[in-house]
Task: inverse folding
């Protein structure tokens, strides 16, 4: 075996080893299922526009609404109806799967924040996380006083667009 | 230079007037009763009528610049998340934005460009909605 062939073989072996290592790591959490997303935003905006409201959608999926203060209650009623029409159950609680996703997402955020020198509240067990979510939720960025800087350090905190 | 103030919301009472069909009224009532909002106030700025009953924490902040300045707003919220920023001295609304719905608490943020800002409201609407913290800052 020539030196060049040996080097290529070694590189290939290293690649296999590295690939093997990376597949053994936990994959990053995709928190997308926890958010309503762009499709819902588009459907809601169209629904409200059909009902005569002055609304527009920006590129990030935020819906800007323009209504007089005295019309706020009427707007909110239509907004809820349009959310339901868009397929969102506004009264739905967290499913088991969503709890699990949220816990894993929060755990990634916590690890990243600590790695960048931010303080974070002590992580509860997953069971305790569920039990206390509606009363004293564990929010890993609770101590962060500058969300923008923390999100720059830890893009995993960003809410998925669309 | 950046100025920042924060609020923590713990109250969930709202006293909005309700209108619409009985079904909508019921839904809106449930949403309003379960919603929470965090409120930031500028100095000497009275809260608008629709905010009566919400938990509020005050902070003094001046966001004024010519011709305009970025005002960043953020909140830890879940539910149908709505931000509203008033003009300086609460003379009208700069804007109202619905950022999306989340089933869990998430760090939401939005930036406005304006020459002067008043109260900032962060809402977590729908039955599971809530807001635990809100902040506003000016960026020169």
Result:
């Amino acid at each position: 075996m020539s030196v060049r062939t040996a080097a290529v073989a070694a590189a290939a072996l290293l690649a296999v080893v590295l690939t093997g290592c990376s597949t053994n790591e936990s994959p990053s959490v995709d928190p997308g299922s926890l958010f309503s997303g762009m499709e819902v935003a588009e459907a809601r905006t169209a629904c409200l526009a059909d009902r005569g409201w002055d609304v527009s959608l920006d590129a990030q999926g935020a819906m800007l609404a323009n209504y007089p203060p005295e019309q706020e209650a009427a707007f909110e009623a239509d907004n809820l109806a349009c959310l339901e029409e868009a397929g969102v159950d506004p009264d739905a609680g967290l499913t088991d799967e969503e709890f699990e996703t949220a816990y894993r997402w929060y755990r990634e955020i916590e690890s990243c924040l600590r790695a960048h020198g931010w303080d974070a509240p002590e992580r509860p067990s997953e069971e305790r996380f569920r039990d206390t979510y509606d009363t004293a939720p564990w929010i890993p960025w609770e101590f962060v006083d500058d969300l923008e800087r923390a999100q720059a350090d830890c893009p995993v905190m960003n809410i998925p667009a669309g | 230079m950046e100025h920042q103030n924060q609020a923590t919301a713990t109250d969930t009472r709202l006293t909005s007037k309700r209108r619409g069909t009985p079904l909508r009224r019921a839904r809106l009532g449930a949403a309003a009763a379960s919603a929470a909002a965090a409120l930031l106030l500028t100095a000497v700025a009275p809260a608008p009528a629709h905010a009566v009953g919400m938990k509020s924490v005050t902070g003094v902040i001046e966001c004024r610049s010519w011709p305009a300045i970025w005002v960043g707003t953020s909140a830890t919220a879940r539910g149908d998340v709505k931000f509203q920023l008033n003009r300086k001295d609460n003379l009208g609304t700069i804007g109202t934005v619905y950022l999306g719905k989340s089933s869990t608490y998430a760090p939401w943020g939005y930036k406005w460009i304006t020459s002067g800002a008043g109260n900032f409201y962060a809402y977590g609407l729908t039955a599971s909605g809530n807001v635990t913290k809100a902040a506003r800052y000016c960026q020169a």
Remarks:
- Residues 96-157 of chain A form one domain.
- Chain A touches chain B through 46 residues (CB under 8 Å).
- Residues 3-24 of chain A form the longest helix (22 residues).
